[in-house]
């Protein structure tokens, strides 16, 4: 996959046409993945770049605070130096602002395309509990299946809380356990019973099924969307 550096818009020679073609080559690769219904890590990557551009344009004096932590001190210093140069160079400022304005528009449209795919996949997911759900549902398992395939992928999950800007969020960690062929013997209830028998560390786990009738790439799309959907589902039930 073609990639952009975190400070691609400020690296090297600052020329609108040069940066435009660099960006378009990158976005062409992103769209190629989207056309195959592959969302990740591409969608997260372009959101990262969009936030970088917005942060530089709107919060130039506060780069250390507003730029994502992925940037190193050297990269932030490079952007601070660039901003100081812009103050005294109207032509450089005009060129860079033209690059940033063009790039944010193009990336925003690409994000919208990816978001449409995400929402389509999310809308096709059906989530329901398998058996009774314990009061503590922050740790357990979920079953993931798609299309006409009888295989069910089993994941262990764990929810945790973190705070950001005085707001609380939930994150999810998952671990792939195994895959079962669903049949008259391997029902969801029987798979759950087998997990409880084998995984003694979770004697009374919360278990959920996540299903879709359509077929999507598992690692690049179905699993990431399913994880976020499960977090929302559990949070809404707890509200």
What can be said about this structure in brief?
The chain has 239 residues and is of the alpha+beta class.
* Overall pLDDT score: 85
Treating each run of at least 4 consecutive H or I residues as one helix, how many helices?
A: 7
Radius of gyration of CA atoms, rounded to a whole number: 22 Å
Largest beta sheet: what is the strand line-up?
Answer: 1-5-2-3-4
Biggest pleated sheet: 5 strands, mixed
Low-pLDDT residue spans:
61-70
What spatial form do the alpha-carbon principal axes imply? elongated
Element order: H for helix, E for strand? HHHHHEEEEHEH
Total domains, how many?
A: 2
Helix content: 40-55%
Specify the structural class. Answer: alpha+beta
Secondary structure: number of strands: 5
Strand content of the residues, in percent? Answer: 15-25%
Q: Span from first to last CA? A: 40 Å
Main attributes of the structure:
2 domains; 239 residues; 5 strands; 7 helices; alpha+beta; 51% helix; five-stranded mixed β-sheet; elongated
Overview of the molecule:
By secondary structure, the chain is α+β, with helices and mostly antiparallel strands. It folds into two domains: about 10-120, no CATH class; about 125-239, no CATH class. About 50% of the residues lie in helices and about 20% in strands. It has seven helices and five strands. It has helices at about 15-35, 40-60, 65, 75-85, 90-125, 190-200, 220-239, and strands at about 125-130, 140-145, 150-165, 165-180, 205-210. It has a five-stranded mixed beta sheet, sandwiched between helices. Strand 2 and strand 3 form a beta hairpin. Helix 2 (about 40-60) packs antiparallel against helix 5 (about 90-125) and helix 4 (about 75-85) crosses helix 5 (about 90-125). The longest helix has about 35 residues, at about 90-125. The model is unreliable at about 60-70 (pLDDT under 50).
């Amino acid at each position: 996959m073609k990639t952009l550096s975190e400070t691609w818009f400020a690296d090297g020679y600052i020329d609108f046409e040069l940066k435009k073609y660099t960006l378009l080559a990158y976005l062409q690769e992103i769209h190629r993945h989207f056309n195959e219904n592959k969302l990740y890590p591409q969608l997260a990557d372009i959101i990262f770049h969009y936030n970088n551009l917005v942060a530089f344009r709107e919060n130039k004096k506060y780069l250390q605070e507003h730029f994502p932590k992925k940037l190193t001190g050297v990269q932030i210093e490079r952007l601070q130096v660039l901003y100081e140069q812009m103050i005294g160079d109207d032509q450089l400022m005009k060129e860079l602002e033209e690059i940033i304005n063009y790039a944010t528009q193009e990336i925003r449209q690409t994000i919208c395309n990816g978001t449409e795919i995400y929402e389509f996949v999310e809308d096709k997911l059906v989530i329901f509990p398998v058996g009774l759900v314990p009061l503590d549902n922050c740790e357990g398992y979920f079953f993931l299946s798609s299309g006409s395939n009888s295989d069910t992928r089993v994941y262990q999950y764990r929810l945790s809380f973190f705070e950001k800007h005085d707001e609380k969020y939930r994150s999810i960690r998952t671990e792939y356990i195994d895959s079962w062929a669903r049949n008259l013997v391997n029902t969801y209830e029987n798979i759950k019973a087998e997990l409880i028998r084998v995984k003694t560390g979770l004697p009374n786990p919360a278990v959920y099924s996540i299903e879709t009738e359509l077929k999507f790439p598992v690692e690049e799309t179905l699993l990431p969307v399913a994880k976020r959907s499960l977090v929302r589902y559990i949070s809404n039930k707890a509200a």
